[in-house]
Specification:
globular, 5-stranded antiparallel β-sheet, 42% strand, 33% helix
């Protein structure tokens, strides 16, 4: 099963395909690398305001979006 991590930033969104569904672990890795930083009450990814993230499966996305929308989201 393919997992998709969607990260919402103030400048747009980033979609990361993951083989395993541990999105929190992926986000923790970004934090450990110093790419996610905090200036309470704000959170940043590479100095860009991070609004939130969502982990889902490709099957769930397929049910929530049209094929055209999915193509735009994941670029495949």
């Amino acid at each position: 099963m393919k997992y998709i991590l969607i990260i919402w930033l103030s400048t747009g969104s980033i979609t990361v395909p993951l083989e395993q569904g541990n999105c929190d672990f992926y986000m923790q890795q970004l934090e450990d690398q110093g790419r996610i930083t905090y200036n309470i009450p704000n959170t940043y990814l590479d100095s860009v305001p991070l609004w939130g993230y969502h982990c889902t499966t490709l099957e769930q996305l397929d049910a929530e979006f049209t094929v055209e929308e999915l193509t735009n989201i994941i670029g495949e």
